[in-house]
Amino acid sequence: MTSDHRIGPEGRDDEVTRSLRRMYAAPGTEQYWRDLEERIMARIAADGGAAGRSWWLPLARWARTGAAAAAIALFVAGVALWRERELRERSAIETVLLQANPPMSQLAAAAGTAPDSETVLRYILTP
After folding, report:
1. pLDDT band for position 8 (50/70/90)?
2. Where along the chain do its domains lie?
3. How many CB atoms lie under 10 A from the CB of residue 44?
4. Is the separation of the CB atoms in 107 and 114 below 8 Å?
5. Which residues have CB under 8 Å from 51's CB, separation 6+?
6. Alpha helices in the chain (DSSP H)
7. Pick from 29, 45, 89, 103: most CB atoms within 10 A?
């Protein structure tokens, strides 16, 4: 097994590979990099530094829309939490009022057949 990658039906073409490497090779001289740096710095100086400050401008156009979407999301979340709390309270009230043993039958079971006033008062005052 070879590590020679096949390019095309006949295999690797070394002349094409060398040509491509020459075309896409990084410049070898230091002067190229100095000239590139000078062009970049000249462009920044010509803009007055605006190029560095303008990257966020497209986002700024969406700030109002984003704030409105966030406000709507908070409103929907608040309504959902309020509704859930109301449902929980209603469920608790229904559980107390619609339990299997009504309070009078519990009272009769606690006091015997005929509850007296002290038993009724104790039942009402205990949590």
Report:
1. low
2. 13-61
3. 13
4. no
5. 43, 44
6. 14-24, 30-47, 50-53, 57-61, 63-97, 103-111, 117-125
7. 103
